[in-house]
Structures are given as C-alpha cells and as structure tokens.
Specification:
The protein is α+β, with helices and mostly antiparallel strands. It has one domain (14-102). Helices cover 18% and strands 36% of the residues. The protein has one helix and seven strands. It has one helix spanning 14-33; strands spanning 39-41, 44-48, 54-61, 64-71, 77-83, 89-93, 98-102. A seven-stranded antiparallel β-sheet has the order 1-2-3-4-5-6-7, with helices on one face. The chain is globular and about 50 Å long. Residues 1-41 form the signal peptide.
Length: 113
C-alpha cells in the first residue's frame, strides 16, 4: 500500500461531509492495521498521508491505557478507539456514539513446504 489519503471536510458537498465523518474510522483502521507505518512521539501516534502531510494524532488516555483519543491536524478531538486484550477495536465519535469495530485476525501458521 503506497499510502492512505484522508480528506478534508467541506460543508458544500455531501461527499466531503461523508469523508469528514469517515476520518475517525480511517484513523482507527490505520491505528489497528498499520502500526509500523506510523511515527511514534511519546504516548502519541502521528498520522501522515502519502505525501508526508500531517493528518492528526492518536494519544493514549492515561486513565485508561486501552483507549486512544483521536485528534485532527488542528488538535480538535474526533473521538476514541477502545482496544480489548485480543486486539479488537471499537470506534466512537466525539459524542460517544458507536461508529464501528475492527476484528484482529488470529495469526496464521506458516505454510509447510
């Protein structure tokens, strides 16, 4: 995968509003699926698009280490991702509404030759 672009919101078109609503979903999927491609900075994970532009961050909640808070490039809170002990993640928007979940696939054994 060469990179994932996360769009910016515009109040003038429905497609841009959909992109803005999906931004936390995309960030959560990135957080769950692509940890090696993210830049770690202390307790925060910073997200960049394919061109290297900053797209936001996820920081660990100190009161609950299984929770990541998501922020856009301007530092506005977008929502949170809750991860269970099995690596499954549940995504909530900034009002606490459930948006969806990801399921971590179990490790596949290496094929025998």
């Amino acid at each position: 995968m060469s990179g994932i672009l996360i769009g910016t919101a515009s109040p003038h078109t429905d497609s841009h509003a959909t992109i803005a609503w999906l931004r936390p979903v995309v960030l959560a999927l990135l957080l769950a699926a692509l940890p090696a491609s993210l830049a770690q900075a202390g307790d925060a994970t910073r997200f960049y698009d394919a061109s290297g532009r900053y797209q936001g961050r996820a920081s660990t909640n100190t009161a609950n280490p299984k929770q990541q808070n998501l922020y856009d490039p301007q530092g506005r809170y977008l929502g949170r991702v809750m991860t269970d002990k099995n690596g499954n993640a549940r995504l909530y928007d900034k009002q606490g509404r459930f948006l969806g979940h990801t399921t971590k696939s179990p490790a596949q054994p290496a094929p025998q030759q």
